[in-house]
What we know:
The chain is an alpha/beta fold. It has 13 helices and 17 strands. The chain has helices spanning about 5-25, 65-70, 85-95, 100, 130-135, 185-215, 225-250, 270-285, 315-340, 385, 415-420, 435-440, 535-550, and strands at about 40-45, 75-80, 140-145, 170, 255, 260-265, 290-295, 345-350, 360, 365, 385-395, 400-410, 450-455, 460-465, 470-480, 505-515, 580. The strands form three sheets. The protein has an eleven-stranded mixed beta sheet with strand order 12-2-11-8-1-7-3-4-5-6-17, with helices on both faces. A four-stranded antiparallel beta sheet has the order 13-14-15-16, covered by helices on one side. A hairpin with a 2-residue loop joins strand 13 (about 450-455) and strand 14. The longest helix has 29 residues, at about 185-215. The radius of gyration is 26 Å and the shape is globular. The protein starts with a helix and ends in a 6-residue tail after the last strand. The structure holds 2-acetamido-2-deoxy-beta-D-glucopyranose (NAG) (2 copies). One 2-acetamido-2-deoxy-beta-D-glucopyranose binds near residues 124, 554 and 555.
Amino acid sequence: MIHPRRSCLLFRSWLAVTLGVLAVRTVDGRDVSGFRPNFLLLMADDLGIGDIGCYGNDTIRTPHIDRLAQDGVRLTQHLAAASVCTPSRAAFLTGRYPVRSGMVSSDGLRVLQWTAAPGGLPPNETTFAKILRDRGYATGLVGKWHLGLSCASASDHCHHPLSHGFDHFFGMPFSMMADCARWGLSEKRVRLERPLRWGAQAVALAALTLTAGKLARLLPVPWRPVTWAVALAASLWAASCSVGTLIVHADCFLMRNRGITEQPMRPARTAPLMLREVSSFLARNRARPFLLFVSFLHCHTPLVTTESFLGTSAHGLYGDNVEEMDWMVGQILGTLDAEGLTSNTLVYFTSDHGGSLEAQDGNSQYGGWNGIYKGGKGMGGWEGGIRVPGIFRWPGVLPAGRVIHEPTSLMDVFPTVVQLGGGEVPRDRVIDGRDLLPLMLGATQHSDHEFLLHYCEKFLHATRWHQRDSGAIWKVHYRTPVFHPDGAGACYGRGVCPCSGDSVAHHHPPLLFDLSRDPSEARALTPDTEPLFHQVMARVARAVEDHRRTLRPVPLQLNARENSWRAWLQPCCGTFPLCWCDRETDAL
Ligand SMILES: *[C@@H]1O[C@H](CO)[C@@H](O)[C@H](O)[C@H]1NC(C)=O
Ligand SMILES: *[C@@H]1O[C@H](CO)[C@@H](O)[C@H](O)[C@H]1NC(C)=O
């Protein structure tokens, strides 16, 4: 008689071996439908790879994420397909470079700017949620979306999570941003306020001149235009003062499925609301396969942090916020455990891209820490903007404590999840992600990515070549942002570094680094210092050519035309323009 615990262990070892064998033998048509795991995907916002204990931070406390790594597989070269939210998240959900879906721009706008902009993840893109939902999974999204909402009318919801394969949504259709908190001030707001204030001042000056001229009996004008000018100046000024409030109502709100529940949202309450939503989703779906994507509003500015965490870390408000996020991870994993779901759930933790170096509050750092890696959020190719934490845990199947240094991508989650869930990876389009299972199980030593491309908007900034026979990780940079002259390696004074134009250096020949020897990209190699220089350049150029041949022109979703505010797309839960409601009151 085999003890039940032993039989479980035996079963799991058998499963691991079978999956390993299947993963190697049959890439397509693998049938693991008898033991399809649940998926719990956790994504932090703007978190740096250097902010996590298990990635080398010894002063920030992230015990729950560290524990996840201890019990699972930790990827050390896990790469986002873009260094800002919208394109990175589009690539994550579709397994495709954002240039393929059009989730990029060519004119400087990096992410979706308004909930009421018509751009967004095109309806003909297929997310892993959609494939799994069609395979009988309950699919939920809790937290941030930032991939668009509606196309032509405020209620068509063509880009809404529910139109992209999620059957449950609770969270922000947009993104946490400075304006959502009373103390925050965004660039967007400044950009909108400035012309109104200038206009108000110009008109006021004109009115003053007219009045003075009239009083001095130099200008024979009637009083009426003077009154008008004063009224106009006052209205422009009043408008400039309400820009902040308008933005908050336009973009900082919560939805449950298709309905708005809190507009504007009360940021401090969203953490407990999200946790409650996660618990109820897990309880509701414990008996059937599910995929739950928890997309944290942490650790994006303005770093909304629950009071009990304020002042508790060694790293100011940013550290408090990271530690609260880690605590939330712990709460969620605790719920998973309490529901008896730990052993049949594949858990994943990552960040959508690197920490923001430009986020400063006076002189103190307000954004994430990217460890030894150069650059950060918003930079096309530098490692700090794209190398993020990547942890997978599936007890009994994935080896505990394994660390993998191979290049992998957030896009790999797509085929990995789809195939484990018993779905099929679409064949009618290019999928750039690769199944991670063989690598994580140790059935193969190398990731499938020989080349990875690093885009900034629609411009290729860098390419990575993993030369397998030598182990070198070559990185070729064609364009790099021109940093602020203070030498700190960031674009201070602008929200993010630009991708094109004069503020970007074009390199002829390109810059070359070998990340296996120089992970911080500190010393560019030259034909004198690197005998393989020309060979590497030629090989990478060929790979880029091959890649370009697979690209098709698609409508760009983030260009100004698709990415500006439309009154008729504005979701509003009261009467427009008084968009106000609070339906979460009885919740907590
Ligand atoms: C840990 O993270 C904090 C906050 O981002 C950062 O300031 C600090 O330098 C990091 N420490 C290490 C050892 O990476
Ligand atoms: C989606 O539609 C656009 C045109 O609107 C087209 O350019 C693109 O190729 C389509 N994508 C896929 C994956 O079919």
